[in-house]
Amino acid sequence: MKKLIFILLVLLVSSVYSQNDDDFTNGIDFVGIGTEPFWSLKIDVEKGIFFNSAGDEFKLETGIPKIKPAEDKACVTYIAESEKFNLKVQIEKDSCSDGMSDIIYPYSVKITITRIGYKEIREFSGCGNYTFNPLLNDIWALVNFKGTDIKDFKNLKSRPYMEIHIRENRIYGNASCNEFSGTAEVTGDKIIFGDHITRTKMNCEEMNLETDFLNALSGKTLNYKIEKLKLYLSENDKVIMEFNKID
Predict the structure, then answer these.
(1) Which of 33, 78, 109, 162 would you label with 93, given CA atoms 20 to 30 Å apart?
(2) Domain edge (last residue) among 109, 130, 151
């Protein structure tokens, strides 16, 4: 019986991480999970927080949470309340293992629940990750850069493209002359590109687009949107890059 329970919990953990339940499509921004006892968490910043502890059949649904970013570390806290309980969810950027599988999550989660008017405190610890559009995990060819069609750039060695690997938080590609690679973390509808994008050292006839393209990614947090097999990257609500999906 214990072996069966273990297998079921591993499947539940895997389903949260792979988003088989369409969390992103349903507006969920963050999912968390823990064991001993088994619990699950879903945060929708526009609706509320949904917490379920299967071990003691405790469920909690709150109103819209308040968000408090920390100043000293990569941490954010969500505070919300239901009719009877106050809920605080602290999410910290830190590699986290669920202790049951080989999955490594990018965030650790600490949950504190207090009953309103009482000193009773319940705490839960576990792991989690922000949701993402699974269609993003693909290869994308640049077709428009800051309002200019790629066809209008002369003497390009090749069309720039970007390959996104969400699980590994990595990007690879070619910027028209040189191959490049770097880090990129997807959180909800945003992509956080790392400061250091490395590239090979070939010289080509046209290098301006390559330099501008990589500068537009390096160290930037850009909003993304996917429509009809097209990827749009925006900065300050303005589309700066358009890509086509490569089959």
Answers:
(1) 162
(2) 130
**Nearest residue to 135 (alpha-carbon basis) of 230, 11, 12, 13:** 230
Where do we find the tokens 């003497």? Answer: 155
Distances (CA, A) of 61 to 5, 109, 215: 26, 18, 43
DSSP state for residue 99 in the 8-state scheme: S
Element (H, E) at 105: strand 104-115
Q: In this predicted model, what pLDDT tens digit does every residue of 205-232 receive, in sequence order? A: 999 999 999 999 999 999 999 999 999 9
pLDDT in tens, 128-144: 989 988 899 999 999 99
Question: Which position has the token pair 């003691």?
Answer: 56
Residue 243: which of 171, 130, 154, 159 has the closest Cα? 159
Last residue of a domain, one of 130, 148, 170: 130
Instruction: Please say whether the beta carbons of 3 and 11 come within 8 A.
Output: no
Calpha distance 7→82 (Å, rounded)? 33
Q: Residue 144, CB half-sphere, CA atoms under 13 Å: how many?
A: 13
Largest Cα–Cα distance of the chain, in whole Å? 71
Domain that holds residue 106: 2-130
Does residue 215 share a domain with residue 123? no
Q: Residue 118: how many CB atoms within 10 A of its CB? A: 9
This prediction has a pTM of 0.74
Residue identified by tokens 């507006």 is 27
